[in-house]
Structure formats: C-alpha cells, structure tokens
Amino acid sequence: MEFEAVIGLEVHTQLLTESKIFCGCSTKFGAPPNHHTCPVCTGMPGSLPVLNRRVVEFALRLALAVGARINPVCVFARKHYFYPDLPKNYQISQYEAPIAEGGAIEIEVDGQRKSIGLVRIHMEEDAGKLVHDEKRPVSYVDFNRTGVPLLEIVSEPDIRSPEEAVAYLKKLRTIVRYLGICDGNMEEGSLRCDANVSVRPKGSQEFGTKVELKNMNSFRHVERALKYEIKRQIGLLLEGKEVVQETRLFDEAKGVTHSMRGKEEAHDYRYFPDPDLVPVKIDPEWIEKVRSELPELPDAKKQRFIEEYGLPTYDAEILTVSRPLAEFFEECVKLFPQPKKVSNWLMTEVLRELNREGKEIDETNLKPEHIAELLKLVEDGVVSITAAKKIFPEVYATGRNPKELVEEKGLRQESDEGALEAICREVLSENPAEVEKYKSGKKGVIGFFVGQVMKKTRGKANPKLVNQILTRLLEA
C-alpha cells in the first residue's frame, strides 16, 4: 500500500517593531534577562494593554502580499494555558475574527509550481523563554520576549512532502523579509515553525490522525523531522497500530521525534474575546495606503530580471531571494551595464563571502561601485580575472578601492603590444618543435606558448592579448 503525507504549517513571525504589541517595552534581542519588561507585559493586576498600530500595519502588508482577505473588524481573544513563561496564564491572540483569512503562497519544487493555500493570518503576543540550568535541576524564566508581537500564518493542509514544506517556509521567509516586517532569523527564534502532519493511503480523501511537531529552528531540521515522522506513522499503520493525536518534539541530535503531550484542541484553550481590548476596525483608506507602499515582491522581481536583464531563471531566482542583494545587483548594472557578468560575480565571489559570514550584503563594507570597478578593470585588460578574484576578499572585508589595491600589489597587467610581441617572438624561437606541431594542425599547443609568455612576465601579461599576438605570429 502506498501512503501520502498531509502537512499543514503554523509559522510564527516575530515583527520588527521597536516596541512590544501592547506596551512600550523594547523588542531588542540580546538584552540581559528581564530588562525589557513592565507591569503590562508581565501581567501585573490592574495593568491594561494598548495595541501597537505598527503591528496592524505589518499584518496588513503581509495580508496584501499573499492575497488574503482582510476582515473589516478583527477581535483579540484570550487563549488560556498554563506554563511558567506565560505570566498572565493566558496569551492575547486572535481566534474567531482574525485580521485576515485566505490567500496563498506559490512554491516551486523540482520544476513544478504549486499554490499552498492559507487559512488565516492573526496577531498575537509572544511568550517568555525558559532557561534551563545545565548543572542543577532548576530553570529560570526570562520575560524579555513576553509581549513581542507575532504574526501567525496558518496554511491549509496542502503540503505533500518535506521538500514542499521547506520550499513554502523559504518563500514565506523571503516575502516577510522583502516586506521589512521580520528578519527571518530562525536561530534567534524570530521565525518559528510548527507542523501538523498525518499520512493516509494514496488516493484517499479522508485525513489521517494528525500529530503536531514542535522545536524546529532551521529548514534542515524541519525537513528531517517531517521525514522521520512520516516514516514513523507509516510504520505504525503497516503494523496495524493507531497513530495517536499528540504533540511531539524533534530531537536534533538523534534525528527522531518523541512524545511531549496530548494535542490540544481549540476548546482546551477556552478562548473568549479579551475584555481589555476593543475590536479593531480597519479603515479601507488605510488598506489602500499600505497597498500603495508595498515593495516589488520576489516573484514579480524574478520575472522582471529575466525579461529586463536577460538573466537565466536560475540567476534571477538566486538574486531575488534577498531584497538587499537584488537591489545591489541593479545598482551594479547601472554602473557596469553587463547584467550577466555582474550576476556571475555576485553569485560566485560575493555569495561565497556572504555565506561564510552569514550576512546580508547591506551589512558589509561592499558597495556596488566596488564590483563595477573590478569588472571594468578586467574588461579594460588592466587586471586579469585571476588578479581581480585575488584582491576581492580584501575589497569585501575593508571596502578599499580596487584600483588602489591593484597598484599597491603590483597586479596591473602588461598590455603594451610591442613589448608583448617581442616576448612572444622570443618564446616561439626558443620552442621550434612546438611551432612545427602547431603548423601540422595541433592548434591546442598555443596554450603552451601562452604559459611560457606568462612565465616570462611573472603572470602580468594580458593573456587575451598574448593569445591574439601568438596566433597572428604563428599563422604568419
């Protein structure tokens, strides 16, 4: 019997607001424990929440970007559960009347495009963080994260494989980063994912028993956890056993999931409208203002790069994954209008450095002027491509002018045609046997002559010019 997986994802995106969702405390990451707290976010009696308008604006941006339906009125609700890092013993979230419903995210896996539907987007506050003592059997609570604004994006159960799940997550992260509402940093917890996964016989329309997976903080962990869980559930069904509805944690070290608790249903949380927060009415004019300010989104930008710059699909996809990188590319092309050469350099030399440091291009000393100048130096024959690649890491690290480094390191190519012709004639006269081989039709021997000229000039000869001179002399 063949089985298929049915997967739905619940993604929490931590918003890039300066203050929390219901108070004025800072959202900055990395502060000492419990420094960014106040009576409101720690749930002290008598304190009252006040909604951060910026959170609503960010929710509208995402809703419009994914084609969701924005509800004219949305309501905050209390979601009750009891955990040490939840100071009020309830979380302010949204339930029956979220800010947006519907919409979709387009993904591509193995050349096949697919639309993953969305159930809802809603606003809520984050919980705190438990810090477990490694030496003693005690835990500490850090409330700095309590009240940090989140958007929860719930997908339809349209995902059928771990690969599709990862593609969906990557696309969603790209969108929220383009919109400037979340940095997408999974390691710091600003983008977190829970997965609901079940299996069923292929062709069946009925859903199997779903299991919720938690504790996945990277694309790789999401893929590994889903693969294991799908295999585990299929194994149970083949043995004639039942899959239990529960919440399971992913053990990164062992690559397995294990039971955490029984899976809660909505009624377990005893949702009801928060009496301290009035319903939020969304003005249509505000929606249109937000719509008019949306940036060009990844799919549209990718298609434009293909059509406007003549880039291959692969190049366009790589360059548009990051908004800063896409903007950097366009600035480079303005200065050096050869899109494919710029693309090649960015996808090799630049991305190698960015990936090594785990940075976005706007977090470095590199400027479009640096890339344009390097490519112009190569184009004009001032330096070889090898020399340009040699100095690039220093340009990237320091932001120094490429021309200065070329002069300082003595990397300027010899392009004096007269001087180079004299050296070429010398090489040919020293190697009569190889000259005869060339004359007999073995044209590949010209590479030997170029190598000898480069040796005599200590690598400073312009190889393109050397090749032209040698060909002319040999053909003569």
TrEMBL record:
One GO molecular-function entry: ATP binding
Keyword Magnesium recorded: no
The EC number(s) this enzyme carries: 6.3.5.-
UniProt keyword annotations, A-Z: ATP-binding, Ligase, Nucleotide-binding, Protein biosynthesis, Transferase
Keyword Transmembrane helix: no
Gene Ontology BP terms: glutaminyl-tRNAGln biosynthesis via transamidation; translation
SUPFAM superfamilies: GatB/YqeY motif (SSF89095), Glutamine synthetase/guanido kinase (SSF55931)
Catalyzed chemical reaction(s): L-glutamyl-tRNA(Gln) + L-glutamine + ATP + H2O = L-glutaminyl-tRNA(Gln) + L-glutamate + ADP + phosphate + H(+); L-aspartyl-tRNA(Asn) + L-glutamine + ATP + H2O = L-asparaginyl-tRNA(Asn) + L-glutamate + ADP + phosphate + 2 H(+)
Top-level taxon: Bacteria
Asn/Gln amidotransferase domain ranges (all copies): 327-474
PROSITE patterns, per database record: GATB
UniProt function note: Allows the formation of correctly charged Asn-tRNA(Asn) or Gln-tRNA(Gln) through the transamidation of misacylated Asp-tRNA(Asn) or Glu-tRNA(Gln) in organisms which lack either or both of asparaginyl-tRNA or glutaminyl-tRNA synthetases. The reaction takes place in the presence of glutamine and ATP through an activated phospho-Asp-tRNA(Asn) or phospho-Glu-tRNA(Gln).
NCBIfam families from the UniProt entry: gatB, PRK05477.1-2, PRK05477.1-4, PRK05477.1-5
Subunit text: Heterotrimer of A, B and C subunits.
Family of this protein: Belongs to the GatB/GatE family. GatB subfamily.
Designated name of the protein: Aspartyl/glutamyl-tRNA(Asn/Gln) amidotransferase subunit B
Protein's organism: Thermosulfurimonas dismutans
Lineage: Bacteria, Pseudomonadati, Thermodesulfobacteriota, Thermodesulfobacteria, Thermodesulfobacteriales
